[in-house]
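Apologies for my clumsy wording, but are you able to produce some protein sequence, whichever is easiest, and the tokens describing how it folds?
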Amino acid sequence: MMGEIVYFSSRSENTHRFVSRLGLPARRIPIGAGEGLDAASPYVLILPTYSGEGGKGAVPKQVIRFLNDAANRQHIRGVIAAGNSNFGATFGIAGDIISQKCQVPYLYRFELMGTDEDVANVRHGLERFWTRQPSKHR
């Protein structure tokens, strides 16, 4: 049994396009400030990295709000981040930040909306990841 994907995509829709190409069940963290999402089961988070000085501001505010809810945070099992290689050392740093703060593995990083190879790697990697999770966490 696979867990689900929870993702955030800005108005650029790059992350949304990537997640859509995965063809796996996914739920989107709303862009609107007054809206929310409840994660009731284990999930892998996919998010974009915003540019920021030294990683400051790299995690979208909507994702911070989502993870500030203890019930949502308890179900995260891994993170995948998009980024722009033009950011240099901070490419995909949102994944590093979430991985450290939530104590979950950083599973993969891809550029912008990802390539076909990225889609195949993530799909295959998630299948392997979920089959290796202890049953109490599924």
